[in-house]
């Protein structure tokens, strides 16, 4: 049996906050003691806030290109400027949508630049390196508890072909993001050629179920899932462009 | 707290089997009594088997087009023929991959036609109407237990931009596939414009975590997730082509 436990006691996060310590304390207060095999799933928004990856709209001086896009798409040019500064490549620009390959290589709408759950006139950016951020939380939790739960940082994105958003892993530490069945035989002796499950994304989605309203519960512990421990990075989940049929 | 409970006692499914009854019995044997708020997640493969949606390769007479594709892609022409018979539209055909819009409207590799966990020289097809299949299981469970757990039927698919597969909802009954936050305010008073979570897909992914090896645990109960009951269909999750930037 796998448990999905939302941590209810996480305060509003400010720049410089010690997330590892805040998570350990919230878990303790809830009577949940960390275990080595837990996965701690943390929503990107609070990581970005703790790391100061928040900008004020009034500090954005839009370029000519940002004005042009904003005009076409009926967006705030300062918001567009912030998106472009996070962009490596525009994957698709149509019908008011900006699907972006971020500087990290993730493909998502608006480069993950977001206005929700943040002070008025501010925007949150994705962490500079979410895997590094996950490592830091992982180490800090280990320091405080002597346990080695894996850490996943998630964001909420739409998908091609399907309506609605789900959560994805954008950073991780202490685990392998996949459960690879390639080369194994199925129950009829057939050798599986393609089955390689992106468990980090599935854990992200599972954790989202415990978030209630958007980011109300920003940290979730998943207990009882027997994942493969290891160094891992969420960058392994990024499909190399030469293997990508849709980029 | 949300629980993900894999049912271990599901036998190998044959055509004509009463899935609802098999699921209720397996749950009982495991000491799990169905509750109204449970979600029963069933892997497509056993639904297809129970419904006889299995074909023998030797019954496939490949068309000229199937031979041509098979030749280009180094596939079995009979397998390609089976895929084409499930196809409404080829979305992408490249590097040995066939990304298909199925007759139901789902977009996935090989139209969901699959060789794993099935007798040698057989292929499983997706159910003709997975929402109808989910409805049947939903009604049967209700008949046997007087409870109304939602039912989700899932398949394992790859994604654009990201490596590895995750499980998606292809059929459902007894629930709304989304948790819609549009129009609500976040904790800083900002009105959310886009947040509409595809919880049926997240439940599918969460359940996959309890499957162990591919389809070893074909039925999973998710307990404690407060979803919105209703008529719902997984077809609502299909993005209409005019709103799809990648089709």
Describe, in plain words, how this protein is organized in 3D.
The structure is a homodimer of 247-residue chains. With 247 residues, chain A is α+β, with helices and mostly antiparallel strands. The first copy, chain A, has two domains: 166 residues, CofE-like (60s Ribosomal Protein L30, Chain: A, 2-Layer Sandwich); 70 residues, CofE-like domain (CofE-like fold, Alpha-Beta Complex). Helices cover 26% and strands 26% of the residues of chain A. Chain A has six helices and twelve strands. In chain A, the strands form four sheets. In chain A, strands 1-12-2-8-9 form a five-stranded mixed beta sheet. In chain A, α1 packs across α5 and α3 packs across α4. The first copy, chain A, is globular. The model of chain A has no long low-confidence stretch (mean pLDDT 95). β1 of chain A pairs antiparallel with β1 of chain B.
Number of helices of chain A: 6
Helix content of chain A: 25-40%
CATH topology assignment of the largest domain in chain A: 60s Ribosomal Protein L30, Chain: A
Multimeric organization: homodimer
N-C termini distance of chain A? 38 Å
CATH class of the largest domain in chain A: Alpha Beta
Strand residues, percent of chain A: 25-35%
Count of distinct structural domains of chain A: 2
The radius of gyration computed from the alpha-carbon positions of chain A, rounded to a whole number of angstroms, is 19 Å
Task: Give me the CATH superfamily of the largest domain in chain A.
Answer: CofE-like
**Quick one: overall form of chain A?**
globular
Strand order of the largest sheet of chain A: 1-12-2-8-9
Q: How confident overall, as mean pLDDT of chain A?
A: 95
What string, H for helix and E for strand, traces the elements of chain A in order? EHEHEHHEEEEHEEEEHE
* Poorly predicted spans of chain A: none
Largest interface: A-B, 70 and 70 residues
Count of β-strands of chain A: 12
């Amino acid at each position: 049996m796998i448990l999905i436990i939302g941590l209810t006691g996480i305060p509003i996060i400010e720049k410089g906050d010690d997330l590892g310590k805040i998570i350990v304390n919230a878990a303790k207060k809830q009577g949940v003691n960390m275990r080595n095999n837990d996965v701690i799933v943390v929503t990107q928004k609070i990581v970005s806030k703790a790391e100061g990856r928040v900008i004020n709209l009034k500090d954005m001086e839009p370029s000519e290109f940002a004005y042009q896009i904003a005009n076409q798409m009926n967006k705030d040019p300062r918001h567009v400027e912030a998106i472009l500064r996070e962009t490596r490549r525009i994957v698709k620009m149509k019908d008011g949508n900006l699907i972006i390959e971020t500087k990290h290589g993730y493909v998502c709408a608006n480069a993950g630049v977001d206005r929700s759950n943040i002070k008025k006139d501010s925007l949150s950016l994705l962490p500079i390196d979410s895997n590094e951020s996950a490592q830091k939380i992982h180490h800090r939790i280990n320091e405080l508890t002597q346990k080695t739960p894996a850490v996943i940082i998630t964001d909420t994105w739409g998908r091609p072909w399907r309506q609605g958003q789900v959560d994805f892993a954008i950073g991780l530490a202490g685990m392998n993001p996949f459960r690879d069945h390639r080369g194994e035989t199925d129950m009829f002796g057939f050798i599986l050629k393609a089955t390689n499950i992106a468990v980090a994304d599935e854990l992200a989605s599972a954790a989202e179920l415990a978030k209630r309203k958007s980011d109300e519960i920003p940290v979730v512990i998943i207990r009882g899932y027997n994942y493969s421990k290891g160094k891992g990075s969420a960058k392994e989940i990024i499909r190399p462009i030469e293997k990508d049929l849709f980029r």
